[in-house]
User: Fold this.
Amino acid sequence: MSQKLVIRRLPVFALLLLAIAPVYRSGAANVETSAPSKVIISTAGTKATAFDPNEIRKDIGYLASPALEGRRTATVGEHLAAAFIEERFRAAGLTDVRQQPFDFQSGVGLGPNNTMKVTLGPKRISAELDRQFAPLALSANGEVESEVVFAGYGIVAENYDSFAGLNVKNKIVMVLRFSPESAPESERERLRHYAPLRMKAMQARERGAKAILVFAGPNSLPEDSFISNSHDVSFADSGIIAAQISRKLAEEILASAGKDLKQTQDSLDQLETKTGFVVPGATVKLRVDLKKQTAVGHNVFGMVRAGAPDRTEQAIVVGAHYDHLGHGDENSLAPQPGQIHPGADDNASGTVGVIELARYFSQRRSRLRRDLIFVCFSGEELGLLGSAAFARNPPVDLSHVVAMINMDMIGRLREQRLAIQGTGSAILWPRLIEQAALSTPLRVSLSSDPYLPTDSTTFYEKDIPTLNFFTGSHADYHRPSDTADKINAAGEAQVLALEARIIEDLATRKDPPHWVKVTTPAQGPGREGLRAYLGTIPDYTDSTQPGVKLNGVRPGSPAERGGLKAGDVIVDLGHKRITNIYDYTYALEGVKIGAPVEITVMREGKPTTLTIVPAQRK
Assistant:
């Protein structure tokens, strides 16, 4: 599952969902508490199902084993998992089984021309790459030379402005990483939201700075260390030259102005904001040369061909993502980086669910009027990359796909509680699910909103009715502790038995479900910090141009009323330049409910300025 709620380390896709999506799942609030439209409680007792918990446990155990190293997209672990899924599909008797490769931007590398020279009065320092300085993945390429201004933590929030009284136009800004360390917990939590490096880079850029240098103070990290560029999962250019410098070099620069780094940070940590200053006689000449890197991920799919005499040309997609976080990245919630994240529930459980359902229906093809396409996606944790690639190049025309059934985290059934999400995407869903669920021991919550941080959203945006099955989040979410021994295999078997009933009904009924355009944002707690709602639907896979491209807008939303539409590329919001989705999220923090704000989009290659009135998030 790609949704992350913890603010301190937000990845690109989750950051956007927190800012603009009307409903989400997280460790803080699962669907059971997000105002489901209906709860179905069966009086049926627990009974044996067609799905063997021992087989479920065994296959999840392999996918979540150390040998697969967390199944990060485009790694050896992903290749091993893909081969395993392919073998299971073939053994189940599926036809047209194959892997589907897709290219994606996987990182940034250093070009040959990264240099930094520091002048401190008569003193000259030629900084050593990877020891005294290193470009950040979010940096633009280019060369700058200018005076230096220190701007504290580089944070701008209500009643806190690190740039107060400073003129940083055409200057190089130095800022500390993180946020004030000694503030009261409530204030520390508040300011932490504004502390990501991309937000600090945007604040410096919006004030006219030429570049930003970041470093870790002694109160933040006992041992100085550089940030790995592999931890920036979006690799989007922030529109400003950016680098990290060593603590020792930062101390030298501040000392030339008669300032002690430790004392300066101590003042800042007590919420003193007026500690920024120009560093007299200091200039920096910085050149950044980054090279974009690409990699190849792999989806795996196969088919069960309908065998009924009155078969149709239609198909149903049954899917789940099989990738996870590898050794951790910015999506990880682990306190220490570098450990294997097994991803047993997220989403080896859903992957094995697809395998089990493929085996089940391969023995029942003679009853089916519609083909079943079983697919395991990669790249979900990086932003639904695999499902987007599948939708661009499907094995059948998407116009023939009448439904998509997705599984994301179905291995931790507790108190018989199962969430089925996206039920507003077709009128048929509530009635069909209720009929199927009454013969199971499950307590089923229905949530109508189909805009979810998982692969089903890719299909809903293609006008295909969708459902997503989810047994709830937990304390092991996106941590190394999401291990196979915690899987409730018997519970997953019950979930699959219910899914099998629903899928069989879809594959055999006369009339397919019809896609419904959801117009009312679902209600849900846990979004108090996200007050304004626009209703835009970004294209999470398009990073080919500056700005934020839209896949569409929510019906009846402020975005639709303001004239935004699919294909628009947002380049300015509230007079804040938007070069990537991080800029967009941060710009949303500054808009006011009910106050008209200008938004500029590129439409068919030409700039168009519209006025949008943000609404209150329900």
Q: What stands out?
A: Residues 489-508 form the longest helix (20 residues). Residues 3-37, 520-530 have pLDDT under 50 and may be disordered. The longest strand covers residues 95-110. The CA atoms of residues 373 and 503 lie 11 Å apart.
